[in-house]
């Protein structure tokens, strides 16, 4: 048996689900502003005490923290990449007030790699130490992003050790773990992870303490923007992954309740209707991933259209239509507290707790991508297997049970404008949460 | 004459992305490079084609290779100048102006950064009026201008200066070298004299990119239809609006071909390689290269690249007429559907 909790801006929903996914009970309580763990405690306390294998929680605290520029740590940014990485400085293009709230200085040091092993340059350890002493006293956290680090994260880890030796035990976010190609996007995401480390750490500690008391023996997970889950340890390391997670779990929950893998979902809240689409049970993602004030940070988030409440039915119909593959093709599923105000579409039972149910039914996820040179089919298959293995490992790092992780998606895209067989491989993996 | 400052770059990059017809690389990184260069060196002066003296030495500066690699391995900002200096050394004269080789994609922005660093003015125009994948696919080829000597520079400081028997051969050799040089290099080639610009360039395309980007931005801000705004600036036609329901990618006969199927009211099949090249609506061809086939996100008006084509995207496909010199027999031989391996002839766009 498991529980899902969805901490919204106004209400917190919770649900108990049997192992077969059937909903046993749901409850709604008022959220406690600024204290998500208190909302979780209040909601779960209203449900019968049952033996739970895991509790999955949907949060909006990290997104709120970025939007309000609150609780962000000052971050020293270290880019490992040498001359080729110098033209565009770290935090370029960030909204000035966010950069002001986050920046504690940066350095670009020699090192980093390329597509071929001979492209790798040694890490300039002295420059890393100079960076560390340069940001000492200002930086509350450090973000490290190395050129081609998803291929090999050793230099990032080496740099983190040097920084730690200089500055002591402070949070250090590494970009390699994010597993995506695109240095600036990955660096922006890593800076965000570091900036949110305080908020996320407090959140993880608060949830761990609350749930250890309420549901002893249950694994605790939180939702991510791609519709999967991660452990509290993973949240503390990569809080940016939770951006967009609220709508993602509502979409998944609505699909599960309606028994549909492909659907358009309208979540009717007190202030707005959020419309999104499900494809194969997971949210359709926004092109280009998450953005903050126009800065691409690469985290995968659902593509959404928002309609203000009270709503004009024509606006809602247009939003739903825009998310359809063709006229009237996919069923509309209506969930959320205000679902009765929308007469059309499917209204599955327990739709008011779709976010909590979506959290409870989601697997723990991981992903990885890599550019490879694959001259033939067997080389491609071999490389794809290696990438799939990295995705499985990412899911396990996020808290998935290693015995039951499977590949959700494996895609290869030939790189444009290059002769010969350069291919970008990408895999997503997911599995049930590892039991405690 | 006018100046390009930092403020113009967002609109210009958005427009250049649309003119990239699915290829050319995301201008975002190029925009950051141009912004940084202008911040350091000041705004770039831009001349219309007819303001350039007849004896000017106008040099296209560009980047070659995989845009996906460019996203990871950012240009250092000096490779373009290294390539330019190497080219000047063999030419025996200095560049007086810089110009984009293609307005579509990231190569619209790279020359702005290079011009700012070199302290040279830019010419408002480009050699394609869109994006194409190969170095010989430029209007100068049609008037007998050679793309060699061609200078190629990488991030490590390696430089290659190439002479070749034809513009096709230069492309072939440079592309092979590009792979060895880390899959992403900077080039200076296809030198034009001032009096060749009228025949060798599509005029005012940087201005077009900026207007296009501005129209999309303004439409979005006013909650109007950004795609319709883009169509109006392009003088194009809306070919189809729908959702991507299937994307297939394969390599046959040396061509890495992709095909996407869109469903809406009817279906549209889109054939792409590096750019979108062919559109069939309900089985009948409605647009072909060298006309521009631009795929835009229906909600935002943002361009969708061939590499980003995937199931579930809601897009509108727009056709826009290419420069008329591309639809001459010689132009079609260089960049018509048959060059890309499609067994069909060029079909002019017709109003939907």
From TrEMBL, chain A:
InterPro entries: Hydant_A_N, Hydantoinase_A, Oxoprolinase-like. GO terms for molecular function: hydrolase activity. Residues 186-270 form the Hydantoinase A/oxoprolinase domain. Residues 3-166 form the Hydantoinase/oxoprolinase N-terminal domain. It comes from the Bacteria. This is Hydantoinase/oxoprolinase. It comes from Nonomuraea pusilla.
TrEMBL record, chain B:
Pfam families: S-Me-THD_C, S-Me-THD_N. Gene3D superfamilies: CV3147-like (2.40.390.10), CV3147-like domain (3.40.1610.10). InterPro entries: Oxoprolinase-like (IPR045079), S-Me-THD-like_C (IPR048350), S-Me-THD_C_sf (IPR024071), S-Me-THD_N (IPR010318), S-Me-THD_N_sf (IPR027479). Residues 8-163 form the S-Me-THD N-terminal domain. One of its GO terms (molecular function) is 5-oxoprolinase (ATP-hydrolyzing) activity. Residues 166-349 form the S-Me-THD-like C-terminal domain. It comes from the Bacteria. One of its GO terms (biological process) is glutathione metabolic process. One of its GO terms (cellular component) is cytosol. This is DUF917 domain-containing protein. It comes from Nonomuraea pusilla.
